[in-house]
Amino acid sequence: MSRILRFGLTLVVALAGLAHARVGYAQLLPGTPPALAAKLGHPVAPALMQQLERASVAGLRSTQRPAASYIKAIQGPNLGKPPVLLYIGADYCPYCAAQRWGLALTLLRFGQLSGVRYMLSSADDVFANTATFTFQFAHFNSPYLRFQAIETANREQQKLMPMTAQAAQVFKTFDVPPYVQFSYG
Hints:
Number of domains: 1
Protein name: Secreted protein containing DUF929
Strand content: 5-15%
Order of helices and strands: HHHHEHEEEEEH
Pfam family, one: DUF929
Largest sheet: 2 strands, parallel
Structural class: alpha+beta
Distance between the termini: 34 Å
Oligomer: single chain
């Protein structure tokens, strides 16, 4: 089984573990979005990070398999280094906001995640003010995996982090069906 496929399956198990543990973002982030607004851009509280770590461990005990998986194996050369998980998102995007929760839980299974900060998705988009955090200042330490996060825009849709040429090429190649179920363009 390829390393990418194993990682993909681990991601699916992490998401299933999150559902199995019945830990939603409403339980993890105290207060409502207006209360969170004062925390925007501030580091996530250590207590919340500990709750995420506990949820990640609880997911390891999950016995249910997800009903469906859209993860597809991608073949490539083994460079003798840990694989890189490339995350490209935007703070304003409510879908990215929801995705960050499962991604953080998965990363916590493989190493230490720090530098995440409180965030809300855009106030004027579908699912406005979705509670989340940003990976803009995130650091990840692991012997198994490297994590490269690129938050392309803030919640007001102003540019934040530019994509490297390599990240842009990966994005252009895989941000289309069948790898994602919809296309932006």
